[in-house]
Amino acid sequence: MATILRDPERPEEPSRLKRWLLQPEVAEPAQVQGPHRRPSERHQQPWWKVMCLTGVDYFSTLGYQPGIAALAAGVLSPVATLVLVCLTLFGALPIYRRVAAESPNGEGSIAMLERLLSWWRGKLFVLALLGFVATDFVITITLSAADATAHVLENPYAPGFVEHQAVLITLVLIALLGAVFLKGFTEAIGIAVALVAVYLALNLVVVVVALEHVVANPEVVTNWRNLLRTDYASPLAMVAVALVVFPKLALGLSGFETGVAVMPLVRGDPGDTPENPRGRIRDTRKLLTTAALIMSGFLVTSSFATTLLIPPAAFEEGGEASGRALAYLAHAYLGDLFGTVYDLSTIAILWFAGASAMAGLLNIVPRYLPRYGMAPEWTRAVRPLVLVFTGVAFAVTVIFRADVVAQGGAYATGVLVLMSSASVAVTLSARRRGRRWQARLFGLIALVFAYTTVVNVLERPDGVRIASFFIAAIVVTSIVSRASRATELRVEGVQLDATAQRLVDEEAAGDIRIIANEPNERDEREYREKEQEVRRANHIPDSDPVLFLEVTVVDPSEFSSTVQVTGEERHGYRILRVESATVGNTIAAVLLNIRDRTGQLPHVYFGWTEGNPIMHLVRYLVFGDGDVPPITREVLRKAERDPDRRPLVHVG
Q1: Which of 267-276's residues contact partners 24+ apart within 8 Å by CB, and which partners?
Q2: How far apart are CA 383 and CA 180, in angstroms?
Q3: Residue 648 and residue 652: Cα distance in Å, rounded?
Q4: H or E segment and range at residue 374
Q5: 292, 294, 300, 305: CA torsion to nearest 10
Q6: Is 79 exposed, middle or buried (0-12, 13-18, 19+ CB in 10 A)?
Q7: Could you give the strand order of the β-sheet that contains 491-496, starting from the edge strand earlier in sequence?
Q8: Least confident stretch, 283-287, 305-309, 319-323, 507-511
């Protein structure tokens, strides 16, 4: 028998604004099905359409990546970009193809590491990674909006009054993004397909025309080669320097984590099952491979064309190509009219890249924190989270003054840390499966990503500072939330096996008396002495039957679950056994289940716990046991507001 347990408290009628904010059913973007829902089949799409959804983030980096590469590597930019492409195709792509196979339900590499690390160690590690996720996605919103602003300001048709208003325009774009999510929308994939198709087509035109100019003016290639020979003694020296500077180009690696996060939207084969979604895994791998190949081609060609055709001074902060190298070429070689069309397309996709990041935050953060008990109840609603994330994006924009280059380090840090964690997760998984050669290969890739991350952090520490802020904020608020919610029922349901049901039904013939027992040796002497102690302290007649209830703490870091109650007769004593994350909350849940099953109020008997009450409180929060009687009483008080329907707690 199973009973679903709910808090019967009925708060006063909330205001209209509060109802609107906390409304759980919001017309959300396709990849956001609420914190605790999965996309239905009607939301699933062919893999190439879902690729466009991830592509609004991945492909939009073409708006600023060539300029950042030119600033970081100078004349060596094409060589450094080629190194980045090799890492993309032979490092990131194999890693995330493996992640797709092992985490096909959208949890990504974080879930893989969560499974590999147990107890509080795993939870705290996930919280730290969520800090980097927040860094990645929030900076995606702010950086993309800032780059969209740069395209607005540099367009020759832009009105004069917007000059020097970069921060204000960026804040307006972020506010519009937040407004979209507050209203809700469902056609994200359709919008993404249109934006990506137009944007890639325009970029193809710009790159082809730029390469035609390179072919028509071979002296630019000669000048570039002469500069390389002057600055670098040999091709080996070029490669060595490229390996040193390419971590600054890490923005070109974004998009892989999003690609596996939206896996549930990929339509697989009709025979796919949740346990074995072969078609979805296969098509997600197609998605990742196709996106990586398209992006790699554009990265190499755009870097080559912009390095050869744009004066170095134009890449500097305030220059005409700063944060908009391909847009510079579009205006220079195809005219201001085409350039304006290109600017509008770039602005749209950069803005929608922020929408993809916002959707990722709304999908990933609630996936973990409420399950850990480390978020208040309002995080189950979309709109309050949208307001929080929008406010954070406002603050980051003001702090960085909407500067694309200044935010690049923070963005790269978030991307690289997530990729490093994914490579570590895949390496550990390969070792556990006994595939040594795969473990060595993935381990080598993990070392490359670790090197890239360390270099990026040392040269641009802003990313770590921002990530540290997010990590600290998440950890502190999570601990406070967990502590404040500690006396909730924390049990989603109680299921009794056949023996447990029989024992409870037999007990219901009279008063239901339950002795809470901490299982130790579980021999005849333990039960005899415990029963005698309880009967003597509470004046229970020898003729009244009793049940023992034993709770074994399995993983105290878990917050809630459905508990299984097993009945057992041992040494002549009748026992109910449960495994759970906490003792007091579980006892309260079982008592409420027995009340609902029998219609009688059960009595539970405890002995006082010796020791410092503060230390017992800490033990309860960390290890799930502590001073059980008062915890059980408080959980029952909060779960059942009517004292006449509340199971009775006795302490002797």
Answers
A1: 267/41, 267/44, 267/45, 267/46, 267/47, 268/44, 274/105
A2: 10
A3: 13
A4: none
A5: -150
A6: buried
A7: 2-4, 491-496, 561-570, 573-580, 547-553, 513-516, 603-606, 648-651
A8: 319-323
| DSSP code per residue over 273-324 | -SS--HHHHHHHHHHHHHHHHHHHHHHHHHHHHHHHHS-HHHHSTTSTTTT-
And the tokens for 383? 């709109």
Query: Residue written as tokens 């969209």?
Result: 148
Spell 431-467 as b/e; 16+ CB within 10 A means b. eeeeeeebbebbbebbebbbebbebbbeebebbbebb
Is the CB of residue 627 less than 8 Å from the CB of residue 613? yes
User: In angstroms, what CA-CA distances link 542 with 5, 302, 531, 534, 571?
Assistant: 33, 88, 10, 11, 17
Structure tokens at 60: 């939009």
- Alpha helix segments (H runs only) across 373-435: 382-400, 404-432
Give the angle 255-174-383 at the CA atoms, nearest 5°. Answer: 90
Q: Which residues pair with 577 in a beta bridge?
A: 550, 566
User: What separation in angstroms does the CA of 259 have from each of 103, 106, 152, 161, 494?
Assistant: 12, 9, 29, 40, 37
- Residue tagged 């009925």 (tokens): 10
pLDDT tens digits for 609-649? Answer: 777 778 877 777 777 777 888 888 988 998 888 989 999 99
Provide the pairing of β-strand 561-570 with 573-580.
antiparallel
CB 578 within 8 A of CB 552: yes
pLDDT tens, 496-512? 999 999 999 888 888 89
The DSSP code sequence of 429-485 is HHHHTT-HHHHHHHHHHHHHHHHHHHHHHHH-THHHHHHHHHHHHHHHHHHHHHHHT
In the numeric block, which tokens belong to residue 49?
């359409």
> Which residues make Cβ contacts (< 8 Å) with residue 198, sequence separation at least 6?
345
Q: How many beta carbons lie within 10 A of that of residue 109, not counting itself?
A: 28
pTM for the model: 0.75
Residues 489/7, Cβ–Cβ less than 8 Å: yes
Amino acid symbol at 202: L
Beta bridge partners of 569: 574
3-state secondary structure of 490: coil
pLDDT in tens, 41-62: 556 789 998 888 888 888 988 8
* CB of 419 closer than 8 Å to CB of 94: no
Phi, psi of 349 (to 5 degrees): -75, -35
Which residues face 650 on adjacent strands?
605
